[in-house]
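pipeline/complex-builder :: batch 7 item 3
reading input block
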Amino acid sequence: MIMIDTGDRIAAKAAQMARPEFIAAYPITPQTVIVEKTADYVESGELDAEYIRVESEHSAMTAVIGAAVTGVRTFTATSSHGLALMHEMLHWAAYSRLPIVMVNVNRALGPGWNIWADQSDSLAQRDTGWVQFYCASCQEIFDTIIQAYRLAEMEDVQVPVMVNFDAFVLSHTSMPVEVPDQSDIDAFLPPYRALWKIDPDDPITCFNMLPQSEFGALRKDLHDAHGRVKELIPGIASEWKERFGSYHGGLVEEYLCEDAEYIIVAMGALGAEARVAVEELRREGMKAGLARVRLFRPFPNEVFRRLARNRTFIVVDRNVSIGSGGGVYSELKSGLYGFANAPVHGFIAGLGGKDLTFGEMCEMVRKVADGRAADVEWWGLEE
Amino acid sequence: MAVKNLPREELVRPGSGGCPGCPSSLALRVTLKALGKNTVFAIPACCAVVCLGAYPKTAFDVPVVSIAFEASAAAASGLAAGLKRLGKQDTNVVVWAGDGGTYDIGLQALSGAVERETDFIYICYNNEMYSNTGIQRSGATPYGAWTTTTWTGKTEQKKDMPAILRAHGLPYMATAVPGYPEDLFRKVRKAMSIRGSKYIEILAPCPPGWRFPMDKTVEMSKLAVDTGAWALYEYENGQLNFNLKSKSILEKKTEPKPIEEYLKLQGRFAHLFKPDRNEQVLDEIQQRSLADWERFRKQVECGVA
């Protein structure tokens, strides 16, 4: 079935078809439509789940944790300030090894109030232990949400997964999406079987005090699970492609990279814009390529080390770590250090939803090629 | 029910990390006797987390989900919904939280859970301070009490948390003390028999925090009732019903003992007695208590809570 709809409504559809048994959510622009539509699915009987309309995002994530320890599949969604309010419980979910799936619509954090696209919200949660995907189309949103459950619930993963996409550019933009039959989704994503759960017949205490002697080992176990995530995602994406046809890359979507001298690195909807830039630059005779980061946590260092030989990277970050720089830029540089000497240029651009066109990305690449670019530049600010 | 007839089954195992004379542990033991094994606990940051013991051991013989400080009522919401999915609606979902996690940082989540009519029992063991961090002032600390953040005595009154809960229109709430275990037992059993959100607040006189000998916990909790510093009552169907000695104080059949008798045994109020008696503050505390009882009488008389 082809469904033509916005990113938010596609995300709600994917959540419905993943058959979570529990949803707790709190509305925030521009995620609100997901909260509304999933509530509608439950009230109409199209989704058989408990739905709690909580009083804050902190309680949304906490309630999801409470339900997840009973061994049921869970879903929630948030954005920006809501994600920031969840911060403490994001750690709790990951360190509890609960395979929760959450959508985050990337939006700027205030002040000043700004509801537009900016990845600084989820980048600020990079150290919480969650796997982070970033999507570039509504089809990818649908596919990634279903795949996220498959990944999170694997026995040697057991890690929560955050599926991110850009405010308005994707959340409120309609695109055609191929939606598989429910039976085919069910075959790809069987019912969740928890490895452990709260049960009065077999009482356990979860998350009590953890002595120094045990603490580091449990953190390493989570870190190691992230390592396995990188090994497992390509297989999940390939299986999806075989079953349903759509494919968005594994850890990184590589486009025209084989002979590329200049590779644009971008994440989220900017990755789709960068693809157009690459085609434009190719028409001009420049050997350009795109490496779109689908997975930010764990970061695909291995992919970039492979791509790095004789290449120049141009990173476009719609986010900033104040005092450091673009999030993808610094991850990429630290991942390459000691493995490759590829030059890496960073552009911090499009913050707070400011438009960034493929033409501007072409100009960034030309500037780098001409030797006019600094290591890091803030792009497109009014002089 | 007489104390000797309480169930013999112990669901708090030996090896609890509680201090000697811990009122929370005393009350928890009785509470679990009432709840039985078909129970799940959510416990936020508080002394009870320490009493659980450290991984991989636990002092609880029922499942416990330890959760962040402000989050226990939200966790209970998720637990209750998850258990419902598993067809285990009959499992008691219980929060066991201190006054900091209830009156202050956890108030939002508690208010939300009660407004949503979550089917759970929220139990606050109220030791009138942040005890786990070492005796700091909370919203439940009484006027005049020394803490390590009110060195010369708290200058504000405690908030009336039970009234805030009643304003949510919940079906049942009750107060209790560890010194009357049969009363606590009955109230927990009563809460279990009612669907929806139930709130029980247990006064928890804390020997190290209140500065009194560890063998006086039970006595101190009874003295709180006898002096009228603490009222034992239940709230059901919009009606307040007082229990035990509090009933006769309400009905003026018994005069409450002077509140000084309760205060002077606690080191946290020592500055009110020496080097000189602080008559003004002592009188304020006494008058405030008597005014509370007048308010209770009017509420009962008018049928409002």
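note: Residues 254-378 of chain A form a domain with the Rossmann fold fold (CATH 3.40.50.920).
queue -> next item
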